[in-house]
User: What shape does this take?
Amino acid sequence: MSKLLEVREGSCHLLMGNEAIARGALEAGINVAAAYPGTPSSEILENLAQVAKVRNLYVEWSTNEKVAMEVAAAASFAGLRSLCVMKQNGVNVASDFMLHLAGSGTRGGMVLVTCDDPGALSSVNEGESRHFARMIEVPLLEPGDFQEAKDMTRWAFELSEELRTLIMLRSVTRMSHASGNISMGKLQDQLRRAEFRYDGFILDPNEGPVLSAPVAYKHGLQQGKIEKARELFEQSPFNTYEGPEKPELLIITSSACTLYSREAIHLLNLGGRVGLLKLGTTWPLPPNLLKKYLTLTGTILIVEEVLPFLEENVKIIAAETAKEIGIKTFYGKNDGTIPMTGELSPDLVVSALSRILEIPYAAIDPAYEKKAQAAAFFKAPQRGLAFCPGCPHRASYWNIRNALTLDDRQGFVCGDIGCYTLDIFPGGANTLKTLHAMGSGTGVASGFGQLSPFGLDKPVMAVCGDSTFFHAAMPALVNAIHHRANITVVILDNSGTAMTGFQSHPGLCINAMGQEAPKVDIAKICAAMGAKVAVCDPFDLPETQKTLNRLMEDEVGVKVLILNQKCGLSPEKKAVKKYDVHVDENLCIGEDCGCNRLCTRIFRCPALLWDKEKEKARVDDVLCAGCGVCTGICPQAAIVKEVA
Amino acid sequence: MAHQIMGQKELKEQVQDAGLCTGCGACINLCPYQVFYHDRTIVLNPCDIKAGRCYAFCPRTPVDLQALHAHFFQESDLTPEIGPVKAFFIVRAADAEQRKQAQHGGTVSALMSLALQEGMIDTAIVAENQERFLHAGVAVQQPMEIWERGKSKFIVSPTVAEFNRAARSDAERIGVVATPCQAFALAKMRLKPELSSGDNPIDKLKLVIGLFCGFTLSWAKLLDLLHKKTGLDAITGMDVPPGKDVLEIYTEEGVLVFPMEDVQACIREACRYCIDTTAEYADLSVGSARLSGNWEESRSWNQVIVRTDVGMALMALARNSGTLEFHDVPTGNLEMLKKAAWEKKRTALKNLVEKSGSADDLIYLDARDRLLADLKY
Assistant: This one.
């Protein structure tokens, strides 16, 4: 049984931050949860999907984040509590609807959980979602530990109903993916019935239609809600202070940085000198609370990740209350004490504190550090980012690169977000020349496809995953078709939202709750849109390459090639080998003229090894996924497959 | 004058990127790194072998012509214009029905079929017309299959690539119909250059029938020339009739005529640097005959230069079996051919000097080579 269903109040469980958030939502009695997968947010909805039946939830993987927010909003309009979840980029996608939702207001409690990825550990950006709270004028909460992640989520629904607005709760990778002990609260019974009232007066928040107009009135109302939040936050138990009454230095922080700051104070033994003001309600900031703690000392260090969101907001309050609190010295992002990019760590906070307070401290013994670096460089095997053994993308890019090379017009590929982004790394085929947001490969290609009258004579290709196709590539494809862009779009259909852990999407016949669902056929959509459509198995190397070249040479309009092959880690394929693959050492000619290690030097599947002593290629049985693609590239037919 | 064998990188720099690649196919099917696409040799992936067969066999990497001649031919047979000449004939296939399938006299098809029938070879490599007027080399075992693949090809066929493949199959005795550059590549293989690795089953090559060749066209430029006047698949043949200074393109709807001035612009760059019109490194070489100004009479005959004992033996077989009809050789005919070949050599050397910027640098040829000494450029 899922730990999320624990009924004993006060019982203690080790939960991942994302599980804690999911539990908080269950304790709040939600009915509906919608999300688009994205690391580090995905486990929240996955956990809710697992208990959907038992807890009477409707849970879906929506086609994109904007739709997820719309689906959750409908539940709120019908008086239910609802959750929508996304990673930082997702908020950009949802932001248009979010702006209107802030204007129209909500009914049942509605919470947006956004999981940011400072340092871009699983992203191609380190976008900041916090600014949306200020820009769109919705309250922002940031849990400072795992217990808070749960408790704050639960409270966010109450707050949403009190203020009648969306509440944004922001986590980060180290909060979402680390684990901590959680004391369980009461699981709420859901007694609400969905009812959407729309017949009342236009301005009636409970009975009227749900609109963001009349704008002046609704906008004023929204700002009133923010004012009320500001007042409520003055008393919030999620804003805490620990430290001496008269600290030499005050750290103001939030989120996972609370843990780093606390550890840094401990490491430097500064408990008696440094105070720690941890804020859980970071927009709007409660000014009186801030004023109270800013008065304690003249030296302030603001610790947060990526952009100086907290820093700027604190400084505004400090400026407005300068007469009362006096002139302060601020340390943080703007003066360079805390880096403006990347994740923070206890070491970085230690380094900031030791600089400001002039305390000599080396986090690591320099002699040890030198030794460790040398050992890492000389002894640790290199392991670059690469496609997994059995990955269809390796075969797809092998075909794409070969087709582009044969075509010989310096064609290039526009890409976007998915495992197929790995093409840009040394383990890839290096055909991707632009890399942006979900669906942007097709959109950017659509633009390049219009540039031949201005002299661009290189063939233009785009790649797009199956989930990405539904998420954001469809409007771009329609645009390209309508405007007769001369492009070839390759849809790398591996039957799942693979990079984030195989979440379902509309192209599959199953939904988030494991129920059968109508499959939306990508090939039929593309054909109906008006593209010339071909479908290949990327593991059939000659056929795929031939088809690609034929499509590229057709210079009229949009061509779509759908490459169908399930991900090697898909539930159906994982640990199931289609073929046993081995190298016939008698046939392998290794480094001789005629091969020169094509398999391990160029193709480079991680399961193909070069035996330096024997000077022969070898298949690593443990790593090999049994796809058999390498047997088709060996010029000597020395790589042999047998049906497993 | 031994030349150093280098690798793929140098081959690409010195030949492909320099516009010297003839598309003969000598570097294809030896490894997975070079492939043929349309009418071009493409480097698909980088290879870092320092001395590779691709470089060693390429007809446009530096070569010692004197060594080649000494290896293959009798000094007494050599002519500076058209290489070795043991005998010269005007002939055609005896079977008039079969001739209809051929470009001119059907001599090449007749001789290759005969070589197969007589067991001189068990496999013949010939060029085949494929879709969109592109060509490929194919290995055939039956005489009929040779007749089906007659007619001149104006786009290069990577014939040597198919030899490379067939020589590593069950075929034991292989004959090749080769253009001058293809015959040249096969000759370089027959010199058996010292290689650090990789096989060279050239001993399976038993017969080379050379084709006279003035030029080949770039496929992409041919597309531009046709400019939608006809589809590539509608082309049934091409010819350059003597004295008219035009290229005739035959389609099912009729003949399209292009002035040679326009066609010149479509010639593959590599052909501008070729010094060989008559396929000097073959056992015998075949071209269209030139008979006393009457093209309709001439076009059903071929002229044949026999260069080696193998070539002599095959011609003897053809005469004795009645496979070929023989025509008297008009006076001055050989001299006329020599003059034309001489002109091409001079032009090629001039073009090479122009490209290198120095009379002492003939790129893949050696300016000190005695065989080139008489050619003023």
